[in-house]
Design a protein that fits this description.
This protein is of the alpha/beta class. The chain has helices at 14-25, 39-46, 59-72, 93-118, 148-168, 190-198, 209-220, 235-238; strands spanning 5-8, 29-34, 50-53, 76-81, 130-135, 172-179, 228-231. Helix 4 links the parallel strand 4 and strand 5. It binds NADP nicotinamide-adenine-dinucleotide phosphate (NAP). The site of NADP nicotinamide-adenine-dinucleotide phosphate has 24 residues, from helix 1. NADP nicotinamide-adenine-dinucleotide phosphate is lined by residues 10, 12-16, 35-36, 55-57, 82-86, 106, 135, 137, 179-183.
Length: 240
């Protein structure tokens, strides 16, 4: 049975994988959730990190995942909700409605059920509160119409940050990290990448490490709750 673990969802690639690797390097016990088995998940298993597979877009599989977490870990230091679906809203309304259900489940229902179920097991260290961290997006402040389903469900996760900060105080801090262009998606064309760079004050793709630095600063700071840290090179100010 693990103790004082940090759960990271969506750890099979990119930012989630980086968060797990860096938390492990910094001495935390980590549980890595994934959907698709990848070389990165194999690399985490080779480091001795517990990995758990689950679909987070279906209420039954989310609740099975919660049971698996309760079974393998007696206390949690933090829950980090990173898993996310990212694609433009479909033109076909039936497909868009299916997207809404999926995005709602992964961005809102899964964090809600996991937070609510594991809340009694969350324990901070040295008398300080434990942590819940939602990875959101700068779209929450300045949304992109083509990604309205993605953006509105991420905005729901942002609002959950605020309400759970009230609900779970004083034993648990609840905060968000809101990335901007940290890692381009495969489907981003060269033109879109250039437009994003042109709209980013610091004029670069940030990488996953700045997201980790924001997460670590929240874990280290016992007096911040209900806050959102933008990690976006300033793009929220200049994005059209
Ligand atoms: N990359 C950026 O520049 C950027 C910008 C703004 C916000 N963000 C936010 O930062 C976080 C990390 O970004 P990223 O680019 O690393 O994300 P990503 O590459 O899209 O990875 C997301 C992860 O979530 C998992 N996932 C998606 N739907 C799932 C589901 N229904 N059930 C279980 N797992 C599911 C994926 O699993 P599979 O491997 O099986 O698909 C994947 O491992 C996300 O929350 C994202 O919204 C990122």
């Amino acid at each position: 049975m693990l103790e004082n673990a940090i759960l990271v969802t969506g750890a099979g690639r990119r930012v989630g994988y980086h968060l797990v690797k860096r938390l492990h390097e910094d001495g935390y016990t980590v549980i890595a959730h994934y959907r698709t088995s990848t070389a990165e998940i194999q690399a985490l298993q080779d480091l001795g990190i517990l990995t758990i597979q689950a679909q987070l877009d279906n209420r039954a599989t989310i609740l099975d995942f919660v049971k698996a977490l309760q079974h393998c870990c007696s206390s949690f230091r933090a829950l980090i909700h990173n898993a996310s679906s990212f694609e433009p809203t479909a033109a076909d309304l039936v497909v868009a409605a299916e997207q809404y259900e999926q995005f709602f489940n992964v961005h809102m229902m899964a964090p809600f059920l996991i937070n609510q179920s594991l809340q009694p097991l969350l324990q901070g260290e040295d008398g300080n509160p434990a942590d819940i961290i939602h990875i959101t997006d700068i779209n929450v402040e300045n949304p992109t119409p083509r990604f309205d389903i993605y953006g509105t469900t991420k905005a729901g996760l942002h609002n959950m940050t605020l309400v759970l900060a009230k609900k779970f105080a004083p034993n648990i801090k609840v905060n968000a990290v809101a990335p901007g262009p940290v890692l381009f998606a495969e489907h981003h064309t060269q033109a879109i990448r250039q437009q994003m760079l042109d709209e980013t004050l610091l004029e670069k793709e940030g990488g996953a490490e700045p997201v980790y630095l924001a997460v670590k600063s929240l874990l280290d700071n016992p007096f911040v709750t209900g806050a959102s840290i933008p990690v976006d090179g300033g793009r929220r100010l200049s994005k059209r």
